[in-house]
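I have been asked to look over a protein record a colleague put together. The record follows directly below this note.
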Amino acid sequence: MITDWDAAEHLRDEADISAYLEAVFEDGDPRVIASALNDVARARASFTHGASEAEARRGGAQLHSAWLA
């Protein structure tokens, strides 16, 4: 069975993104570069989304602690 592979799911930090873009720009194909930039944008959006969720959990814990005090 063939499944779709999404590069954005494997770009976990800026070092991954840098290495990925370096390889893509070495290739030089504008279509590949455009696709890679889309992958990077989606990966960074997931970083931001993950950070927002973590901040919300921390904020919720702080509110809960303040309420109990």
The mean pLDDT is 81. The radius of gyration is 18 Å.
